[in-house]
Design brief:
Layout: H1 6-12, E1 21-23, H2 32-41, E2 47-49, H3 71-79, E3 85-87, H4 95-104, E4 110-112, H5 125-130, E5 134-136
Parallel strand pairs: 1-2, 2-3, 3-4, 4-5
Length: about 170
């Protein structure tokens, strides 16, 4: 993990006006404040990577859910409108944040939101994402989630218990 902080970003973002690619993945000490400094100063930015570490699974049989936090997505949408490539793996934003990015970042062609489990792709979001040249959706590809339980927050299983069988 990186030790870069908002204070460091504030101090140096003004000297990064011509930067076109920025990777602040796993920089857990950069918050919305730091993202705002980058957005306001790095006007040439076209490629942003802001992937976060996957959540720690205390119990691998439960689906991990987080409170939706659209704040980073909204800052990106409001201050980085020239982005073409954007990676936000394991972000905590939901449909509202995704819609803001897709609406305001009009030059966006590549979007990776794998692991962003708060995104439900409701309304016209799926259509908007399919118009992009490259889109990696919120659900991790290449993995089967059979056997993972959905819980009601108190640990009670709420998943569909019915199963089909091919045996006669």
């Amino acid at each position: 993990m990186s030790e870069v902080t908002d204070k460091m970003v504030e101090k140096h973002a003004g000297s990064l006006v011509n930067i076109t690619v920025l990777d602040i993945s796993y920089c857990l000490k950069i918050t919305c404040k730091g993202l705002t400094y980058f957005g306001k100063n790095c006007k040439s930015l076209i490629h942003l990577k802001r992937n976060m570490p996957p959540p720690e699974w205390e119990n691998p049989t439960q689906v991990v859910t987080f409170k939706i936090d659209d704040s980073e997505a909204m800052i990106i949408a409001d201050t980085m409108t020239g982005l073409r490539h954007l990676q936000l793996g394991f972000g905590r934003f939901g449909d509202h944040g995704l819609d803001a990015i897709l609406t305001k970042c009009k030059e966006l062609t590549h979007l990776d939101i794998q692991g962003c489990w708060n995104v439900e792709m409701e309304g016209d979001l799926k259509d908007k994402c399919e118009r992009l040249a490259v889109f990696n959706g919120p659900w991790l590809h290449d993995y089967e989630y059979e056997g993972i339980l959905e819980t009601d927050g108190n640990g009670a299983d709420t998943s569909d218990q019915s199963s089909s069988s091919d045996s006669d």
